[in-house]
Amino acid sequence: MTAQARLDALALAGDLPGVLLDAKRLAASAPGVHGRRRAGQGEAFWQYRDHRPEDGARLVDWRRSARGDRYYVREREREAAQTAWFWIDPEPGFNWTSDSARTTKLRRAQTLALALAILLARGGERVGALGHPARAGQRAAERLAQDFLAPVRDAEAPPRACLIFLSDFYASIETWRSRLSAAADAGASGALVMIADPAEEDFPFQGRTLFRAPGARAETLIGRAENARAEYADRLATHRRAIHALSAQYGFPLLLHRTDRAPAPTLAMLMALVAERFA
Fold this sequence. Notes:
The structure is a single chain. This protein folds into two domains: 3-35 and 80-278, Rossmann fold, CATH 3.40.50; 45-76, no CATH class. The protein is 40% helix and 17% strand. The protein is built from nine helices and nine strands. A five-stranded parallel beta sheet has the order 4-3-5-6-9. A two-stranded antiparallel sheet has the order 1-2. A hairpin with a 6-residue loop joins strand 7 (209-212) and strand 8 (219-222). Helix 2 (16-28) packs across helix 4 (105-122) and helix 6 runs parallel beside helix 8 (229-250).
């Protein structure tokens, strides 16, 4: 880890309690996540069902059956935890906001990921950041938050993983094709969460404007920024169409979220996608 990366990690760690608090509040406002309610090996009672000839006498629940004229079998709920893996964009440009009064794209990504992790852990699932161990239990989200401080740029996806990418997706199409292709080759599927700052969507700049790349020395001076709005919008739309095409090709549904909008609807859609993936 470089000296700058250490400083960035320390700065993020200083705000970690705030991010976790945001995530817990968001999770508290969402519907609960429950077990998948399927029969299998486990300790939790699920339901009684009618006895079938192939069950034999040893599976009959005699206490329940004694209350009527039918034989019943006591089924347990299957306890096979699954894992949701998260990848959050480590690029400096993702840790940016156009308004100091509004959250950065990175913090919103962390909040969404941790809120989903809280709900999944509550439902008995495991959660993990790519390149780190999977977590389970009541403190899974806190440990996941710590893992987010040491992101791995391109870790391999576990076989048949449920994988959630959170990014602004400004890396080249070739980069994203390589990432998603590698994940799909490992049998992974999941979701892409595209997080955008409203200034990136609307391009509200006018007059003489100096644009600087976050975390880099590159800069561009435009004399009349409003004259570049149409070309910018066209290039952004072209890039996003290509990302949409990749998401469809490799089986990763794409959600768009703006940082000036409430995160709850995006969390609800993510929950639905993960629940479908785990079904």
